């Protein structure tokens, strides 16, 4: 199998790593900053990092119609998704949020089937089922009671699912760098009014919170978005969304290492099941590629 065929899956792995660790970083940032401050600073930093190279590469020279399409998906993601997720994390546990986020692949699979008017493959459905079973094992032990934060997280799941299905087609006509830079710019604009209503006092913000926001902007935003948008331009949306179920694995073990949270044997086994199901369902189909090669 050509090495290039593994590139989208390596990009998906990078985005999963960065987004998984973002749960811990967000918890640390919330100790000294409001959700609106975290969101604006996170996307403002990403905007500053991505717009110059995007301008220089010419990837922002797009028809007005495409710019409006990018604006539309940016309102949904990062706009609605990260607003709902960040406020949800103030009201619910990271464990509950991870469990609810595990519904993304199933919702993406359903939306893709409706939009594309085709039935999902048995392999995809089996992968989603196995992955959900692993998530239940991973977070079922430590989940807290259902609350308002869980409802907000469910809204975030719906936003992410719509984004993934819509972006699968749009990303084919926009370079990943340009697409991501525009997302960051619209995200910063989206969160600016909320930031201005309650700006933080620099003297009162702990250094740990500032470093956490920096990590969110550099890795969980710039790095993860670039990697995921690149992957979406080369693999189907249901396959890419299935990899999101590996995010709770990284989130749980990241919290264990950084925050000292315990990891049970059941959680470790659930993480292994998730990773195995994601690998089995998302790896390139060898038979398809081999049949496409000339004899």
Structural class: mainly alpha
Please, what is the average pLDDT? Answer: 80
CA distance, first residue to last residue: 15 Å
Fraction in beta strands: under 5%
- Number of β-strand runs: 0
* Helix share bin: over 70%
Oligomer: single chain
Largest sheet: none
What low-confidence regions span 5 or more consecutive residues with pLDDT below 50? 287-295
Q: Can you tell me the overall shape?
A: globular
The helix-strand sequence is HHHHHHHHHHHHH
Structure in words:
By secondary structure, this protein is mostly helical. Helix content is 77%, strand content 0%. The protein contains 13 helices and no strands. Helix 2 packs across helix 9 and helix 5 packs across helix 7. The two termini are 15 Å apart. The C terminus is likely disordered.
Give the key terms.
295 residues; mainly alpha
Write the layout of secondary structure elements.
Layout: H1 7-29, H2 35-57, H3 64-91, H4 94-101, H5 104-116, H6 122-139, H7 148-170, H8 176-197, H9 207-232, H10 237-242, H11 247-259, H12 265-282, H13 286-292
Helix pairs in contact: 1-9, 1-11, 2-8, 2-9, 3-7, 3-8, 4-7, 4-11, 5-7, 6-12, 8-9
Quick structural overview:
The protein has 295 residues and is an all-alpha fold. The protein is 77% helix and 0% strand.
């Amino acid at each position: 199998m050509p090495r290039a065929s593994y590139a989208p899956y390596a990009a998906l792995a990078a985005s999963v790593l960065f987004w998984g660790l973002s749960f811990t970083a967000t918890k640390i940032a919330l100790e000294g900053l409001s959700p609106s401050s975290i969101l604006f600073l996170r996307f403002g930093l990403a905007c500053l990092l991505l717009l110059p190279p995007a301008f220089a590469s010419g990837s922002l020279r797009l028809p007005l119609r495409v710019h409006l399409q990018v604006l539309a998906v940016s309102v949904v993601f990062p706009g609605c998704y990260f607003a709902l997720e960040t406020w949800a994390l103030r009201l619910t546990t990271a464990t509950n949020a991870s469990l609810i986020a595990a519904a993304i692949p199933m919702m993406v699979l359903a939306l893709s089937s409706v939009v594309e008017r085709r039935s999902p493959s048995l392999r995809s459905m089996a992968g989603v089922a196995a992955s959900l079973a692993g998530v239940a094992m991973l977070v079922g032990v430590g989940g807290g009671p259902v609350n308002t934060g869980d409802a907000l997280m469910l809204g975030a799941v719906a936003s992410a699912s719509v984004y993934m299905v819509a972006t699968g087609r749009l990303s084919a006509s926009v370079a990943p760098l340009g697409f991501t830079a525009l997302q960051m710019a619209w995200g910063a604009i989206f969160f600016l009014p909320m930031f201005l209503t309650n700006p933080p006092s620099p003297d009162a913000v702990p250094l740990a919170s500032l470093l956490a926001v920096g990590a969110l902007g550099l890795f969980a935003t710039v790095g993860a978005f670039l990697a995921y948008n690149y992957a979406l331009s080369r693999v189907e949306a249901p396959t890419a969304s299935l990899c999101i179920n590996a995010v709770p694995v990284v989130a749980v073990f990241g919290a264990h290492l950084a925050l000292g949270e315990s990891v049970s044997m059941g959680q470790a086994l659930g993480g292994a099941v998730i990773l195995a199901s994601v690998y089995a369902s998302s790896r390139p189909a060898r038979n398809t590629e081999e049949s496409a090669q000339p004899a």
